[in-house]
Amino acid sequence: MHDYIIVGSGIAGLYTAQLAARAGARVILVTKEAVEECNTRYAQGGIAAAIGAEDSPAKHMDDTLVAGAGLSDPAAVAVLCEEGPARVRELIELGVPFDTHEGEIALTREAAHSARRILHAGGDATGAAIETTLAGVVEHTTVDVRPWTLATEIILEDGRAVGVRTLDARTGERSAVHGRKIVLATGGAGQLFQATTNPTVATGDGVALAWRAGAAVANLEFFQFHPTALRLAGAPGFLISEAVRGEGGVLRNQDGERFMQVLHPDAELAPRDIVARGIAAEMVARDSDHVWLDVRHLPAEDVLLRFPTIARFCAQYGLNITKDLIPVAPAAHYMTGGVITDLHGRTAVPGLFAVGEVAMTGVHGANRLASNSLLEVLVWAKRLMHAPEWPMAPATFPTTFEVLEFAAGSGSQPFNRRSLQRLMWRNVGIMRDRDGLQQALNQLLAWHHAQPEPSSVAAYEDANLLLVAMLLTAAALQREESRGAHARTDWPHPRAEWERYLGLVKQL
Ligand code: SIN
Question: At 429, which CATH number?
Answer without folding.
Answer: 1.20.58.100
